[in-house]
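User: Could you write out the 3D structure of this protein bound to fe (ii) ion? I've included everything you need below.
Assistant: Certainly. Input first, then the structure.
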Amino acid sequence: MTNPISPTTYRPYRDLPPLAGLCTHEEAARPGLGIEACVARLKRFHYAFRRLHEIFTARITAEPIYELKTGFSHHSYLCTEHVEALRKRVGEMREPPLGLEAVPHPALEIFFDEILAAPTTVELLVGLYEKALPALDVALVSHLSDTNKLVDAPSVRVVRFARLELADMIDFGKRCIDRLVDAEQRKSLSDWLVRLDELLAAATDACPLPDRFYSKTSYCYDPLPRRDERFQDLYNQGVNAEAFIYDESLPAKPKALMMLYKRIREIDVPEMMASIITQTKEKPWGYYLEMTRQLWDEARHAMMGEVGFVALGVDWTKVRITHNWSLRLNTECTPMERHAVLYFIEQGLMTRTGKRFEWELGIASGFPLMATIQDYDWADEVLHAAIGRRWYTPQFGDIKKALDYGDQCWTRILSNWREVRDQGLTQHENWWPAIYDAACVSWGETPDPRARAFATTYEGARADLKDVAVGASG
Ligand SMILES: [Fe+2]
Ligand SMILES: [Fe+2]
């Protein structure tokens, strides 16, 4: 007579779902992976997300296409959240020292080095979204099928969340590839793609380690911010947005438009922060986690500006969105000096004339969307000021020294208005009246003559208008 109790015949009380809904008794009765095997896999996932974070971040600055710049900013941030979750989980698994910085397999190292070194956007997109992310997802799926869902429930949860966002990332990437990569280009990639497959196979010891392809010469970060063709006249500092917004005699509605310009101009912050994150080595993990969160927020602020322009029926490509700030910081300052400038600007945003003022202006403008944008922008900036206090100030011992250093660095890259004009890089054309007119047409209103006549430039001013303590960016 067979035993009536078995994982297949066992029935929970009144046939309720068993095992807290994790899995069936049959699944839970399979031994699955031991701690050592499980941790070895989690460390591989951790390594993959860390390298992906490195690649996404390093390629933000010089990527010209705005949609990719903001997409990479998003995906860089998502990767850090999964790195964080995996670190925490490995730390729960009797593994001190964690050994999270070790390379799990030389083939994996080369695999990610290859994608980091991808010479063009096309290679980069295909390498990331058709090779790296799908391969990581396959590995996560096999973890779910190999591990015991009851004993390893905390890892299963981390892996399921990771898969959710990986799917979104892969979908985004594939849609970009559909639009940007044609059959001819794809053909030219075939040797490299084969090499990537060989590296993935070598990482499971299924074949010998192949040679490097693009990563034969080691990757060199490109600090020059690039923009796509919708961004014109990149040195233009012809419209002093802060001077407009802080002029109490001007009406709130056109100020909302000017504020949208300030938001979309923030695309220079991820361009600059990517350089700090990429060029600052040997910091604790928390530094990269928080700095990347801030980078992503700044990309979101730029997109809020984009959304605002579109919602108000105004063509943002007619606005001159300078790359002067990220270009100068990335090429004339050390990573530490760049961080100092960022910190200095962001602490200034916490004053009465900073983000609160912009939010109140959003409300006063009569555009409910503007108020929402500024409400969240303000909340993000409070977080950023705290991130600065955590990772920047401690290097100085006290806040005053930290601020003074930021002020000095900022002063050093005082407006180069005259210089760029004399070099013929821009005429600092006043684009404001045309944009304001276009907005008034779309609102069905007559332009306010004083607002329309605005013609204050950034000549001789640094973009933070020190006396009103408002940020250029940030
Ligand atoms: Fe910020
Ligand atoms: Fe911002």
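The chain has two domains: 31-216, 241-468.
User: Perfect, thank you.
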